[in-house]
Amino acid sequence: MHDGIGALASPPDVLADRVLDLSIPELGQRLRDGRLTVVALVKATLARIRARDGKYRSFYKVLEDEALEAAARADAELAAGEDRGPLHGIPIGIKDLIDVAGVSTTANAPGRRDAIAERDAESVRRLRDAGAIIIGKLATYEWATVGPDSKGLFPPARNPWNLERITGGSSSGCAAAVAGGLLRATVGTDTGGSVRGPSFYCGTVGLKPTFGAVPTDGVLELSPSLDHVGPIGASVLDVALTFDVLAGRIGERSVIPGHHQRAEKVKIGYARDWFARDSQAMPEVIAAVDAAVSTLSQLGMVVEEVDLPDYAAVEVAVAAILHAESFRGHADALREHPEGYGRRAFLSLAAGLAVSEDELARARAEGQRFTGTVDDLLERFDVIVTAGALTTALPAAPFEKEAVWTPMRTIGFNLSGHPVLALPVGFHDGLPIGMQIVGRHHDEAGVLRVGHAFEQQSDVSLQRPPRPS
């Protein structure tokens, strides 16, 4: 099932398996003090993928041989005193919209099964330079457009909390791999919420950075004015460490939350009415986000309710931009090689043909108004907090019949370009609930600091789904 996974010489012992549940800093400490080697870490990771991912289906391609070779080099470098930083020796998975040299970038599209990348995407190059071990390519919706579709090139990834529920967005394998304990961090893309949606539904932490903060070179384009690259991880700190590398911010510009970065007196604008009055919002979601904001208040942060523009108008406007831009990028291929697309992706991409220039101009103007409103609020507040998804993860079965709309509060921030952290804040019926923390442009440190403060006061991010049987 997993191309690249062969038979391991022997399964790791219980202690070796448990090490995979440690944070990136804890793993790094063991790699540096001799209690763990990178080769042992990678072998344990491969064994866990083999044991669990038959249920999760998060990986399209596992790079076993390449990862073990890179692990041996990483061990040799550490032994020689060459330390590349916090991700040195840490296994990282890559969404299959992002180029990894010598590996197909399929986008889960029929026409891209053998689309071998000639070179690494810039984000992957930065990870390698930081000593990370690229361990495989992760599941995506076809061209990041439609929901889970069993007729795709690969079967849809499953939500580790409930295998019959959706993962929530096209960075599906990224969140499933982290939630299922296969990896501590992955790299995905977010054009309308595809880093954040899977994080809300799978109980992971996801960061959509400021627009342009992470290069999109070597990433398959969907909508150039909306596309973002960002990390999904098991904790705020794991995400911060990964973003530092992706954005080239290691050193004085690091966004890593630390003891010197105190979150008290942070001013929070709580956009409660933006979701709580929506008839689709589950009462349990409203209650969980209210409780999380209350926790932030108890930590000394100053909370005031604020208003954001009507979400429906923002969603319609940004969707028009997404459809128009994605159609322009695919128009020639849709006409000349329609067989290279699945039916759902073809129809989704072709829908942009119907967006007129006047409609596109009006949509961009609506987007500018929304951006201005958010900017104005962030002059008064350090961050804005609101819900992410209005429900817990939906059943997957209806998606097999047709694409199903999922109620989110994400896409406006793709156009505005503000950094947004998706953070788990609770559960209902065994399924995660998440919220969003929105910050000023290039203030990823601010949203991570608030998220880290909440995480330290809650055990939500420590919860793990049941092991697959």
Q: What's a quick, concise take on this entry?
A:
This protein is of the alpha/beta class. It has helices spanning 14-18, 24-33, 38-56, 64-79, 122-129, 172-179, 196-202, 236-246, 273-276, 283-298, 311-336, 343-350, 357-380, 412-416, 444-456; strands spanning 59-62, 91-95, 133-138, 185-190, 205-208, 228-233, 267-270, 302-305, 383-387, 420-428, 431-439. InterPro entries: Amidase, Amidase_CS, Amidase_dom, AS_sf.
Major β-sheet strand ordering: 1-3-2-4-6-5-10-11-9-7-8
Please tell me the total number of domains: 1
Percentage beta strand: 5-15%
Number of DSSP strand runs: 11
Mean pLDDT: 93
Specify the CATH architecture: Alpha-Beta Complex
The chain-level structural class is alpha/beta
CATH topology: Amidase signature (AS) enzymes
Radius of gyration: 21 Å
The percent range for helix content is: 25-40%
Which descriptor suits the 3D outline?
A: globular
Question: CATH homologous superfamily - what is it?
Answer: Amidase signature (AS) domain
Give unreliable regions as ranges: 4-13
The CATH class assignment is: Alpha Beta
How far is the first residue's CA from the last residue's CA? 17 Å
Order of helices and strands, N to C?
HHHEHEHEHEHEEHEHHEHHHEHEEH
**Number of DSSP helical runs:** 15
The main sheet comes to: 11 strands, mixed
Pfam families: Amidase (PF01425)
GO molecular function, one term: catalytic activity
Organism: Devosia oryzisoli
InterPro entries: Amidase (IPR000120), Amidase_CS (IPR020556), Amidase_dom (IPR023631), AS_sf (IPR036928)
